[in-house]
Amino acid sequence: MNTLNGIVTQCEKLAFDLSFKRARAWKSQEKDRILIGHMPVYFPREIIHAANGLAVGILGGGDKKLIIKGDAYYQSYICHIPRSIVELALDKHFADFDGFIFPSICDVIRNLSGMFQLLGEGKFVKYLDFPQNFVSNIGGEFYRYELQTVLDEVYKLNGVEVTPQRLNHSIGLFNINRNLIKQLYDIRQEFPWRLSAADVYHIVRAGYVIPVEEHNEILTQVIGLIGVETGSPMDKIRVLVIGAFCEQPPVGLIRTIELAGCYIVEDDFLLGARWIQGDIETNTADPLKSITGAYLEKSTFSSSVYDVGNPKEARLLKLIQQRKVDGVIFAAPSFCDPALLDHPILQKECNDKNIRFISFLFSENTGQFKVIKEQVGTFSDSIKLWDEPLANDKL
Ligand code: SF4
Q1: Which domain CATH number covers 310?
Q2: What residues contact 288, with CB distance under 8 A and at least 6 apart?
C-alpha cells in the first residue's frame, strides 16, 4: 500500500514533467496510440480516449521553464501562458505529440493556435469553437460538428473507429474520474487539514498527463487514505479562490495562501477536470450527443463561457454557500481579459451580499510571495477577529 506522501510526491513529479515521459511511454506501447495535446480550459477527453489516444493537458511551463524565445512571439501586455507554451514547442517538448486542440476561450489562445500552425507542430491543429447558443438543436448540433471534425482528424492518424461502444466505455471512465475528484473536494471541505491544497493540486494535475485508468486508481487510493483522520484542524479561515482557470498559479502561491491563514476549500485551478457537473449519460446509442448535451446542460461556470440566462454571479453565490466559505480570493493571471472583465461583476455581488474578498494578480512564474502573504494574512486575521460568520440566508 502506498503512503499518502508517496502518492503526492509521485503526482507532483508527473504533474510537472515537461517532457511528458509517462504519456510518451504509454504511446510507445502500441502502434496505433496517439497523443493529443489540449490547452485549458475544457476539452472532452473522452473522445480521444475512445480513439485509442491520450489527451494530454498543456498547462504552460509554470515556474519550471525559463522563457527566452517565447517572449519574442508576444507583446508585453498579455498573459504569460502562451509564451511558455511557445517556448516548450520551440524546445521540442511536444515532439511526440500528434495533434493539438485549442479550445476557444480568448484571442490569445486563438493566436497561439495560429502560431502552432506556422511552427508546423503536430499533424493537425484544431481551434475548437464551443457553442454560445445553449439550445440543443442549434448550439448542440454546432458543437457536435466541431467534435466530429476532431474525430475525423484523429481517424486520419491511426484509423481507429470510434464506435458507440468504445465511446460509452470512455465516458464511463471519465464519469468515475470526475466523481472521485468531487469526493476529494468534498472530503477537503469537511477536513481541509488532511491534505493541503497544493497536494490536491498535484494529484488532480497528474491526471492531465497520464491515462484516466491510472488516475482513477491514484484517486481511489488517496480517498481511502484521507477517509481517516490524519491531523487536526488549525485556526484558519475557509476561502474560495477564483480566476485561475487557464494560466495556472505557481504552486508556491497556493502554498502561500494556506500558510497565511486560509484553507482553500474551492478553486478553479484545474477546472477542465471538473467542468461537467455530474455524470455524462452513458450506454446510449449516440454517446457523442450525450457529450454535447452534458456541455449544454451540466457545465460549470467560468469567465471563459458566455453565461446566457445563467449569470455567473448567482452561481458564484451558490458555490460560496455550498462550500461554506468565509471569504473569496480573486486571483487572476496578469492581463487575463476573460477573468478581469468578470471580476468587477462578481466583486460587486460579493459587496452587495457582504461577502469579504481580496484581489490580486499573478503570473505562472511569479516567484515572490511576500506581499501576497501579507495581504492574505491580513485578510484572514480581519475575518477571524472581526467578522460575523456568513449566514446562508443572507446570500
Ligand atoms: S490566461 Fe486568460 S488571457 Fe491568457 S490565454 Fe488564458 S484565458 Fe486567455
Answers
A1: 3.40.50.11900
A2: 47, 144, 147, 148, 167
58 alpha carbon – ligand 1 mean position (Å): 13
Residues within 6 Å of ligand 1 by CB: 79, 81, 105-106, 108-109, 246-247, 304, 333, 336-339
Between the CA of 395 and the centroid of ligand 1 the distance, in Å, is 30
3-state helix, strand, coil in the chain (%, to 5): 50, 10, 35
**Same domain as 288, residue 390:** yes
Mean pLDDT of the region 172-186 = 98
Most distant CA pair in the chain, distance? 64
Total domain count, the chain:
2
Pairwise CA distance, residues 326 & 261, whole Å? 12
CA of 41 to the centre of ligand 1 (A): 9
Read off the pLDDT of residues 86-136 as tens digits, 9 standing for 90 and up.
Answer: 999 999 999 999 999 999 999 999 999 999 999 999 999 999 999 999 999
- For residue 155, pLDDT beyond 90: yes
Residue nearest to atom 3 of ligand 1 (CA): 336
Spatial contact of 94 and 88, defined as CB atoms under 8 Å apart: yes
Residue 73 lies in a domain: yes
Tell me the best of 77, 84, 104, 109 to mutate to test the pocket of ligand 1, counting ligand atoms within 8 Å of each CB and taking the most: 109
Hey, whose CA ends up nearest to atom 8 of ligand 1?
Answer: 106
Residue 308 scores a pLDDT above 80? no
Q: Is pLDDT at 66 greater than 60 in this prediction?
A: yes
Q: What is the CATH number of the domain that holds 43?
A: 3.40.50.11890
